[in-house]
């Protein structure tokens, strides 16, 4: 049987992408096969989404038109060996952080490789994905890869040299935002709000602020100026954040994640 999409690895990112693609009806369950070494994960996928499953990477890849490699970077050495005899006509898409196109093309030569860096909001079709092309990827294959990830959010095409930075900002960014939301919720509880109410307020404030910045093409500085009034509450809160070094801490978080991404390839 031929599948349109084969997924090697059913971890968080592979799971998020498949869930989004199925929800957007880019693929039907019958067009997807997922390879995973653990029987309980294969059973989960079969029961939850009705997709094909396999415990054998070469089998899944050989039967697929698009092969999405979504394993941990340290697992790729074995996966690369598994893929060497696979379908040469397929497009290969890697979501491995820090693993370069040169590494991918050396491990599995003669294949068109795409590096993709999506983030976890692809699961709710609000992701951000950056794509970089290997030398053997044709223009129609590029267009298909863009269409694939547009189904689950926004897409940018960038030089490969940008991808570690993309990983540090957008790939790891949901973790940073989750910490900020958690802190805002705890702050609301600290000043006497019920936790459920504080959660609702924090989530909608983050979401609404992002939409306001996007839809009105405001810079963060312009939005801050709109919210701040002389001697007001926002001014007092921002002064505290600046004194505590929150801006610098976030910048250093991105820098640290970038440095870590550089060690993974």
TrEMBL record:
<dbReference type="InterPro" id="IPR036291">
    <property type="entry name" value="NAD(P)-bd_dom_sf"/>
</dbReference>
<keyword id="KW-0560">Oxidoreductase</keyword>
<dbReference type="Pfam" id="PF03807">
    <property type="entry name" value="F420_oxidored"/>
</dbReference>
<comment type="pathway">
    <text>Amino-acid biosynthesis; L-proline biosynthesis; L-proline from L-glutamate 5-semialdehyde: step 1/1.</text>
</comment>
<dbReference type="InterPro" id="IPR008927">
    <property type="entry name" value="6-PGluconate_DH-like_C_sf"/>
</dbReference>
<keyword id="KW-0641">Proline biosynthesis</keyword>
<keyword id="KW-0521">NADP</keyword>
<dbReference type="GO" id="GO:0055129">
    <property type="term" value="P:L-proline biosynthetic process"/>
</dbReference>
<dbReference type="InterPro" id="IPR028939">
    <property type="entry name" value="P5C_Rdtase_cat_N"/>
</dbReference>
<dbReference type="GO" id="GO:0004735">
    <property type="term" value="F:pyrroline-5-carboxylate reductase activity"/>
</dbReference>
<dbReference type="GO" id="GO:0005737">
    <property type="term" value="C:cytoplasm"/>
</dbReference>
<dbReference type="InterPro" id="IPR000304">
    <property type="entry name" value="Pyrroline-COOH_reductase"/>
</dbReference>
<feature type="binding site">
    <location>
        <begin position="70"/>
        <end position="73"/>
    </location>
    <ligand>
        <name>NADP(+)</name>
    </ligand>
</feature>
<feature type="binding site">
    <location>
        <position position="57"/>
    </location>
    <ligand>
        <name>NADPH</name>
    </ligand>
</feature>
<dbReference type="InterPro" id="IPR029036">
    <property type="entry name" value="P5CR_dimer"/>
</dbReference>
<feature type="domain" description="Pyrroline-5-carboxylate reductase dimerisation">
    <location>
        <begin position="160"/>
        <end position="264"/>
    </location>
</feature>
<comment type="similarity">
    <text>Belongs to the pyrroline-5-carboxylate reductase family.</text>
</comment>
<keyword id="KW-0028">Amino-acid biosynthesis</keyword>
<feature type="domain" description="Pyrroline-5-carboxylate reductase catalytic N-terminal">
    <location>
        <begin position="4"/>
        <end position="98"/>
    </location>
</feature>
<dbReference type="Pfam" id="PF14748">
    <property type="entry name" value="P5CR_dimer"/>
</dbReference>
<keyword id="KW-0963">Cytoplasm</keyword>
<protein>
    <recommendedName>
        <fullName>Pyrroline-5-carboxylate reductase</fullName>
        <ecNumber>1.5.1.2</ecNumber>
    </recommendedName>
</protein>
<feature type="binding site">
    <location>
        <begin position="8"/>
        <end position="13"/>
    </location>
    <ligand>
        <name>NADP(+)</name>
    </ligand>
</feature>
<comment type="function">
    <text>Catalyzes the reduction of 1-pyrroline-5-carboxylate (PCA) to L-proline.</text>
</comment>
